[in-house]
Every structure is written in C-alpha cells, then in structure tokens.
Write a structure and sequence with these properties.
Number of domains: 1
Order of helices and strands: EHEEEEHEEEHEHEEEEHEEEH
CATH superfamily: 2,3-Dihydroxybiphenyl 1,2-Dioxygenase, domain 1
Number of strands: 16
Structural class: alpha+beta
Shape: globular
CATH class: Alpha Beta
CATH architecture: Roll
CATH topology: 2,3-Dihydroxybiphenyl 1,2-Dioxygenase, domain 1
Helix content: 10-25%
Amino acid sequence: MKRNIKSLGWFIRFAPQSSKAGTFYPQKLGLPIIRQGDAETVDFFWAGEAIVIECIYVKGKASAQDPNPQTAALVPFFRNTDLDGVLARYRSAGLEVFGPEQRGAARQGFVLDCDGQLVGLRQSPANSTSPFDREAARRVRRGEAFNPGCAAMPKDVYEIGWVTRRVNDVAAMSVFYRDIVGLPELGNDAGHAQFNLGDNTILELAPGGRERPLPQNRYETLCVFILRVFNSELMKTQLKAKGVRFVHEHIQWDRGQLSYFADPENNLVGIEQRYHPGRYAPKQIGFPEDLEAERRWRELDGPVPI
C-alpha cells in the first residue's frame, strides 16, 4: 500500500490503576511481555506481527465494562486455527467466554479480560480464498509471525487480524474512513464494511454502535487503535484541511510523535510516527517491533513514500 499509513501498530486499553492487566494478558491469555512499567504507568504485550497491545493505567479512572459482543465499541480479533480448543482452555482457566458462533464463513468467540473488555478470536475456514487469510497461513507456515524482541505467541493464537468498530451509520462512517482517512475499501463481509489497515490487518465497521460525546482527553475512552504512519505532520495537515477534529494534536515521546483525532461519531483514532535510530532521530529509542514494521514495509513496497 503506497501511502502514508503503514499499518495497525497498537491497540490501547485505558484502565484504572487497580487493573490486573499486567498479569492477565501474559498469564491468562498467553501474550508475550514486550515491556512492563510499574503499576501506575503502562504495560506492553505482543499481539502478533508488529502489533502491540498497550495497557495504560490512568489515575482516578473508574472501572468501566463493554462486555456485549453486539454493541462493544471496539474489539480486536486474533487469528487462530483451533477456536474450540482456545475457548476451552480459557474456560478451564476460569475466564468468562462467549461463543463459538458463526460469522459469515468464519467462526468466532470472545473472552472477557480482567477489566470486562472483550478480546475476540476468529477462525477462518481452511479453504478460504481471502488473500488476507491465505497470507496469514503462509506467514505461520514460514514462521514469519514474530517479534524479534520477545518470546513466541501461543501456538494456537496468532496475530490480530481484524479490529471491529461498532458504529451507528455504517455507510457514513465508511465514507469517512475511505475518503477522509484514506483506507482502501475491501468490500463487505457478513454486513461489515472492511478496510485495509496494512500488513494483513483489517478494520471492520459493523452496525450496533452509537454516537458518543466527543472526549476531551484520550483517557476518557476505553479502547483505541493507533496507526503507524511515516509522516504524521503531513497526515495531520491533510486531515485538518478536511475538517477532522483533533483531541490531541501533538504528543511528543522520546521515541516518536503521536496524535488523536475523532471520527464523525466521536470515536478516537491515533496516528504515530516512530523514530528510527540513526536516521530519523539519532540517539532516540528504537524498539524491535518498530524496526520490524519498517523492515516489512520496505520489503513489500520499497522506499518510504514522500
């Protein structure tokens, strides 16, 4: 995809300081630890490929739940090849599990995390003709689904393949994500409008959501996804010219720069440009998943777009 948006980079959960996510995700779901902070900051877990689940603990944030699969605002779906086995393992560990259920040609289920937020699991049919499913299978066979900086994913749970956003108006929101954000539209699957997020990941817009008040701060939300981009200043300029509202226009990190904008139903989306040590910003931090994301882009699409 020759564009400024590289791929899905991070799936963020904003949790209260009392959250047990730091032990739940590695011990209950089996996601490898990338980095861990202290109990009052942030934990990072590998979600397959170059994707990170980031749990940010917010001082004073009340515990909130979004446990209904038909209305949950934003849910990540992990690819797997043994849905029944994975759900059975989670049930035996005492976790609350929903499904399995049929979803188009695929089967899917859900598990609640320690804060009452859904994590989805989806198994595509073995004979799927979808280029995304075929590429995912190829990567698994060749051992390409890895983060060079941490341990392996569970043997039967692979990368995040889909992020489903429940919206009130699928048609209007499709126009926004296609024409304003610039995501290539893939068509419709089982009533879900689908868009290419890059690196074999898909954004789904599904009915069942609602318009929300515009957050004044990212910490007011439960979950948000962040896109890797090559030039965040360029994308901000383009989005603002089209009337897109920013909640955080510029957050500077020692490893990059981050922004959050709102879609027409006031859901937040993040964009982040990460630094490459020695080229983007000498002496700045470079994480393995960021270097791996760039390696993948260059291997597929050549030089960075201007």
